[in-house]
Design brief:
The protein has 222 residues and is of the alpha+beta class. The chain has helices spanning 4-15, 19-24, 26-47, 114-126, 129-135, 140-144, 166-169, 182-185, 190-199, 202-212; strands spanning 53-58, 78-84, 92-97, 103-109, 174-180. The chain has a 5-stranded antiparallel β-sheet with strand order 1-2-3-4-5.
């Protein structure tokens, strides 16, 4: 489980986001990091009961400030992801632990390549109802509420802006997130809550995986 000391460290870091303070409290950071790494492994063990996880990663707490106006050196959250194994398992799981009710769990497709994006848009052009049925059904709707992601302002080249599923066609990203309060993050069953949250996105992942591993005729290409 996530320890209160981990959230306390992140809260205090947000108020003292400088290298001198961080170095003086490096032991607290290492304890918090170890706590989150233990949490990550427990979630992966649970995910592997219904999925196959190839690897997980905890992102570095150090910010890349080279091209940012914000020069504070550290992130005030701990985040990472899980990669699913194999070419036929598409989509990735994401998490972020951040005090103040800003912790988030979810996943999706944040940067589809050009070919995958075109394949998805063509699928939505032919049949957007199949995906919308998944998005409007429990458990996705009850857990996430909506599908998120940036998109073009009108319509991609070659697609009609008046298409009934233009809301899907115009997207460049496809992901969902659920927020958690600090009380929920610190609860003894938070690992189980995270696993349940990930499982709620699986019908969406299964649909997207099927589309991205077949051609427009439904023939397997992977």
């Amino acid at each position: 489980m996530i320890q209160k000391s981990t959230l306390d460290f992140l809260k205090t870091l947000a108020k003292n986001n400088n290298r001198d303070w961080f170095e003086a409290h490096k032991d607290q950071y290492l304890d918090a990091k170890a706590n989150v790494e233990d949490f990550i492994q427990k979630v992966e063990d649970g995910l592997n009961q219904t999925d196959v996880i190839e690897m997980h990663k905890l992102y570095r707490i150090y910010r890349d400030v080279r091209f940012s106006k914000d020069k504070t050196p550290y992130k005030t959250y701990m985040s990472g992801f899980y990669r699913r194994e194999g070419a036929t398992r598409r989509g990735g799981y994401f998490f972020s632990i951040q005090p103040g009710g800003e912790s988030r769990v979810g996943g999706g497709f944040y940067g589809p390549n050009k070919d995958d994006l075109k394949r998805l848009r063509k699928e939505f052009e032919m049949d957007g109802d199949s995906l919308k049925k998944i998005l409007n059904a429990s458990p996705f709707l009850d857990t996430y509420g909506e599908l998120r992601g940036e998109g073009v302002k009108t319509a991609p080249q070659g697609f009609s802006k008046d298409h009934p599923h233009i809301d899907l066609i115009r997207k460049k990203q496809f992901y969902a997130m659920k927020s958690f309060t600090d009380k929920e993050v610190l609860s003894k069953d938070f690992v189980d809550q995270v696993i349940d949250t990930y499982q709620a996105i699986r019908p969406f992942f299964d649909y997207m995986s099927d589309v991205l591993t077949t051609n427009l005729n439904g023939e397997r290409i992977v």
